[in-house]
Amino acid sequence: MGSKNKLKRFKENDTFHNVFQPTREELLGNIYKNKGSWRNEVFKNNNPIVLELGCGKGEYTVGLAKRNPSKNYIGIDIKGARFWRGAKTAIEESLNNIAFIRTQIELVEYVFEENEVDEIWITFPDPQIKYKRTKHRMTNLAFIERYKKILKPDGIMNLKTDSEFMHGYTLGLLHGGGHDVIYANHNVYMLEGSPKEVTEIQTYYESQYLEQDKAITYIRFKIN
């Protein structure tokens, strides 16, 4: 994407009512106005809140929101030029149960209050295979602790990835930590019984992976 195009999208994001761009200072200073108020102030309802972390273009956020109008969906990514597409689609289609936040995933515990979130989706994260990159792996122990803070006690986690490494790493960590693995499948399109929201919603990259006959894995779990 050219820099002109990016600039145009950033400017458009500034005009979208469903895009939120808190500063790092607001978040770390614990003065961000929407923290603890997403239901009342942003969505104007008391429906469950579901996050997609590293939402990219927002295809999954939009896809889930269309399927479940009685839930509120928030896509989070640091790359606003990417989720511009999802935000624009939500406005064009009058999907009022969708919002997007431009921030780093590492700061998610400063964006939401304790127990404010009902469910989290992590879709096709970078597996960060190299040892030096493990601190950025989105299901490592540090991230799990962040999610635990903002999730309700019975909150659900979902990991969908094309990385067998990430799938295996996460399963090992969950079993080792005594967490509750509700469902695990290393090839959701080959085995019957996979949840429909896992197989019926596809990201742009996912459709490419499927054309290459790559297995798509999925884990549904609770953090204890």
Overview of the molecule:
This protein has ten helices and eight strands. It has helices at residues 3-15, 24-28, 38-43, 59-67, 80-92, 108-111, 141-150, 164-176, 196-199, 204-211; strands at 19-20, 49-53, 72-77, 98-102, 117-123, 151-161, 180-185, 217-222. It has an eight-stranded mixed sheet, with helices on both faces. Helix 1 (3-15) crosses helix 5 (80-92).
Q: What is the third-level CATH name, the topology?
A: Rossmann fold
Q: What would the principal axes of the Cα set say about the shape?
A: globular
Structural class: alpha/beta
Count of alpha/pi helices: 10
- Structural domain count: 1
What is the number of beta strands? Answer: 8
| Radius of gyration, CA atoms, in whole angstroms | 17 Å
Task: Outline the secondary-structure elements.
Elements: H1 3-15, E1 19-20, H2 24-28, H3 38-43, E2 49-53, H4 59-67, E3 72-77, H5 80-92, E4 98-102, H6 108-111, E5 117-123, H7 141-150, E6 151-161, H8 164-176, E7 180-185, H9 196-199, H10 204-211, E8 217-222
Parallel strand pairs: 1-4, 2-3, 2-5, 3-4, 5-6
Antiparallel strand pairs: 6-8, 7-8
Helix pairs in contact: 1-5
